Predict the structure.
Amino acid sequence: MNDWRIDVKAELGDFKLSVDVRCKGRVLGLFGPSGSGKSTLVERFAGVQSFHGQIMVDDRSVTELRVGWVPQEGALFPHLSVEENIDYSGKRGVVRDRAIDVLGLKGLLGRSVKGLSGGEIQRVSLARALASEPDILILDEPLSGVDLPRRATVFSFLLDVLKQFELPMVYVSHDPAEMLAVVDHVLLLDDGVVVGDGLPSKLLSIPTPSHWLSN
Amino acid sequence: MDPLHLELLFRTLFIGVVSVVVQLPFALLFGRILARAEFRGKAVVQSLLVLPMFLPPVAVGLMLLLALAPDGPLGGTFSGLLFSRNAAIIAAAVVSFPLMLRHVQEGFTAVPLRLSQVSRSLGQSAWMTFWRVELPLAKAGVTVGVLLSFARGISEYGATSVIAGVIPGHTETLATGLMRRLNSGDDSGAIMLAYLSLVVGFAAVLISELAMKRGSSR
């Protein structure tokens, strides 16, 4: 996939963010400690919080794009089954079928979402976002709600999704190892300010400030 | 059972059901707004909407009478409603509305904002999000609100007697009929109506308790 550009000039809660980045590769990482503005930015990106300013992806406003959003906690609709969650956007095309296949959800479709493990919740949430046939996908700390023993499994599903779906993606995390394995280009955020921008291997090999890792 | 008592029972149930149907859209609208929106004067709006619960019902009836009287602010269009079955419905609806509103509002407050946000991000309109996510998840609160409001509506006496009167065979309800029988010395009739009120009221409150329990166990 070609490079893509993200241009943010927006007031985000307590701070103003001005970023103009050409992402070299498909997956842009937002890396920073809790409270650095990562989630604030992606919520505006996903269109669920109003803000002053604009967010452009290439030459289109993000409001014109369909943004697939996988929030930290998965946020499945508890009154719907797994399949009803995945089909919530109303699109039941090949992308939806491929998402179910890649994420290994065929056996879960008829189940209630109550009783799903943290990893299963994230996989269903990801399938739901993919099934909506987004122009861009946002993954907000997709492993944070998954218990440690299941992280490797969910992570391998994530890598399969990254390989099989040719979409620009924004991947949010405060785990440098996760970032190094997933993203092509990284933005370092701290207290609402971009403090670094470039290749993850270059930026994340430096010692990570201890307060970034404590959360 | 005396056919007159049965007629009173059915009229009271009819008034209770229609008053709930009349209130429900308003309770959903205001309950949703008060649960989610932040705006200047919200506390004043909230207080005004629940005020009838904290006023003597006769005072509520008097306010309605002044409003609906031929020379009142609503009199031109609605003065024909006074001393009719519709007036009993209005009285029951106004007095029991705060109870419904409180439970409906609590129901919407308990729906995580994140789920509404996800629904919007998946391309659903605010209306579809309300219909597909918020209302189903607030269902227990709405059900309890409807049942308690119904129970309060069918036992309404003060405001009903002021704006609907106690006209046997026309506007008389279980509560107003009971009082009329007591005043006229028909003790056995009054006791019978008291039993009927007790059974209907207990059934409504019991069902609402079960709905509340079911809602909290989810």
Chain A is about 30% helix and 25% strand. The CA atoms of residues 31 and 132 of chain A lie 26 Å apart. The mean pLDDT of chain A is 86.
